[in-house]
Amino acid sequence: MTILYAVLILLAVLVAVLVLNTLKAKPKETTIPRAEPLELDEDNLAKHLSGAIQIKTVSSATMEGVDKDAFFGFHAYLEKTYPKMHSAMKREAVNTYSLLYTWKAKKAEKKPLLLMAHMDVVPVEPKTLKDWTYPPFAGEIADGYIWGRGALDMKGQLISICEALEYAIGHGFEPKRDIYLAFGHDEENSGLLGGKEIAKLIESRGIVPELVVDEGGVVVDGKMLGLAGMLGLIGISEKGYADITIEAKARGGHASQPPYDTAVSEIAKAILLLRKHQLKRTMNVPLKGFLEALSPNMSFGLKLVVCNMWLFKGLLLKVLGKGATSNALTRTTFAPTQLTGSPASNVLAQSATATINFRISPDDSVDKLVAHIEKVLKKTEVKIVNIMAHNPTQPSDISSETYAVVRDTVKQVMPDLMVAPYLMVAATDSRQYAGIAENIFQFCPYRSLADDLGTIHATNERMEIRSLAEGVAFYVRLLNNCN
Ligand SMILES: [Zn+2]
After folding, report:
1. What is the CATH number of the domain that holds 349?
2. CA neighbours closer than 13 Å in the CB half-sphere of residue 386
3. Considering 108, 298, 319, 438, which has the largest number of Cβ atoms within 10 A of its Cβ?
4. Does the active-site annotation cover 187?
């Protein structure tokens, strides 16, 4: 009997602890009240973005391939459209086509703010031209939208930054910290010629930005998480990237008298082995921050699980692992994407290769991944033959003042949003500031992204005019809140 009582008491205590932890979850109070809407001329904003879209700054992977006229034309367009910004800030061309703007504070009280964007856009597949409602480089303004390649990715954001500076300067803004704008010209081709060169220049000058804000995090419908309302997700870390090629070798020969195992079957077995033994799921910092920030809005059951990670972490990771999108937040992902074998169907392969694309969790690294693969492949004859990879960025501090400023700025402009930190699964130019800047945040302040995210790099890319104005307001408020 006493044992039964003891068990019952223990159970009651456990339930009480779980419920107490759950009830403690409250939204983090924002320190900045909702801002009055700014008086912005939406027609002008739309025209300015339309003009930017009409300049075909299609990305190039090489310096020789850059469309000179387009990029120099874009530089001139910015100068003409934003005269106040261009008289207040010093502009430098970096590696010919990228731009760095500098605004030195008279008396800097804080470390610098760096706002990023890229001028280049991805090309339009000729085959898809007929599917566009309006031609992709016409910058058509219709139905409350500005249409065209780059409207969202990311001329809309670049224009928002310039509009905000023009507005702020027109309203007597004086920076209390140095402000930098970094506009790369090859982000869509990995940013090594533009974004990286600007970052190197910043580092060589000993500049340490307190915060960097770039594209990335998005506004999405909370439905996908069973939440009523819209979410504003602020990227605080970018996953790493690895293309790893493995190879199986064999003697080859005529396919009419094959051995039981061939190079092709060996490589197939290696792929299955690696799939079975993947790096473990973890509750990484961005994922934990994401779940905790949203927990006040979750159903009681889900909230109870999230608020008691000490008990339910394993279960939670398992459940998140069920969906491809949520699984990607929990671990280094594994995606075999390319295979090679024999050059002819009746010839046994002397070499078979597989290339596997990994997106590396902030809790792992390139070295850890490679060591892991080597260990898994130890009992096989399959070897790694090529590695192209970079590490994840370390999560920015979500308990920092700068995170609070970005979060509160979002709330100030879009008060209905539930804001949470997030792990970026795609790469942006801002990764070049890992180790240079104190905090890097990625956010696209456009509500219409919730509907139009799928048009990025695709057909009918467009920016809602009202969302564009909200984006400008976000940057105006950010400039002020950072002061
Ligand atoms: Zn982009």
Report:
1. 3.30.70.360
2. 9
3. 298
4. yes
